[in-house]
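[User]
Um, tokens okay?
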Amino acid sequence: MTKHMVAGVVLAMGLLMTSMATASESSQVAVPERMEQTNQIAKTEADSKEATIATGVELTDSQQRMLEKYYQILPELKKLTLQFVGNSETDSIWIWHFYQELPPGSSGIDAASARLTFAANSDELCTFDMSIPEWATEKLPSQELAKQQAAQFIKRVLGDKADLYQMNEQLGYSGSSSSDSEGKEIRWSARTISFDYLVNGIPFLNQALRVDVDAAGHITGYYRQKMDNLDTGVFPDPAKAISQQEATDIFNQMIQMKLNYIQCQPLQFGMRGESRETRPVLMYAPVHASSIDALSGEPIQEMGNLASQSERVQLIGAGKQLLAQTKEEAAKVLVEEFKMDMGTMAFNHIHEHKDTFQGATKYKDFSWSTANEPEDGNNIKYVHLQTVADSGEVLRLSVQDHSKAVKEERVSKELIRQRALQFIQRYLAAGSTEMDLVSYDFDTIAWFDPKRKNKEELPEPVSHFSFYPLYQGIPVSDGGYFVSINNLTGEVVGYAKGGLDPSVRLPDKQGIVTAEVAKAEYLKTHPLALTYFWPEWLGQRAPAPYLVYMPKPQAGVTYIDALTGQSVVIGYGDSD
């Protein structure tokens, strides 16, 4: 049995963009009596079944009390067998696994399961996910139902501590699927509700909760993001912050709006493998929309550590195609085109699947890893190649190579850039073409000390290059080619094929609104909100948290239509 997970677009953006509700917009959600009655019925039915613990699983008195508590909160657990209780020394958590006992000969895909993790030596729930085949659906709950059930769950898990959190008005969704060797597949969908931790009445980005609720109101997932040893006394005083209007004036001078074409913009997002209607659009999107230090009014650049720059380049494509139908052909492409040594690699598997959002096309994923994998987990290399199943056209390559992470010398930035340009021109359509090149490199983080980390723990230094085709002089964002170069070796470790779809007719740029009009619309729909943020990277934390003004996102993914100057909100399938 294979299980696949997919997160919604909003959640894919991370908690950075999902924790924006301000204290003045606190959302206190009452739980209707009818929902209490529904939950009581489910609880009574589960209570009639005696809970089962597998032979060999021994619980301490405190663990037994924890089990009884979560049998009350999640009565469906009593229908499953507690199969495993163990601890993770590296993460300081307890792990509990529950499974459903099936008759002999049954398919594993039909078994319900659940996994809970707790902070060591406490009953504080860290994560939870549950997959019950009878609950499978691709429908989403109404916003009202999802919010009510999530709020009730948080209250039951945290008790009075739930008052330290505030519901975020922005919604996301999650989905998963399970399949077996016979081709049977089960899919689940859920709406995700986020809760922000409040410090001085202001959301703190580094500490939040997420709750997944399915169409029937079942709680199917929970995730806690928490910063240990939090001293709220070191947080900046919001009384010393500049006004929102002052911050908005600064932000207005700083932000830029960039035109982009999208060939296939979904009208709404769907779940895994589900086709959705799309249309071509010309949009404005903000660039350099950094946050603003609420005390000094200066821009903050530590919300991420990637620096980017854009330029126009003239390239000459050779029109070469990359094709691979079998694992042997895929390995040949890696050796001849990507110059990889596959002699030390062992083939793992081929996984055939549909695209996450546009389900018409099938794809093959080929996977390799270092043969005779070292016991310590170091010096391992992973290679993944994706193709179109029918044609064999190579679409993507990704390489993780931890064996080179200890090298000191680096290839110069200019040689890396030239390597990316030379590589991509082989696979562009034949002829001369102008493209928009955006290059990304890791910025130095002033407070991060690499000497405090083992070299094996540091990420591979990689430079990324995006090559966007142009239409009427404007980049086409979903037509980009992507190349990643390892800064230590100069090798290509990432590739994604792009290009324009000749069947798509892009809008004419004549009659578009100005960038200033688009900027005004963006600021109207994304007002600045006070937020606390404490930069953290690879286990190291900045000396102190920031109090910042950040744009508040709308509920859903939005863009500004360049022809109308109005915001467009992209919802989810079965959204209300």
About this structure: The chain has eight helices and 31 strands.
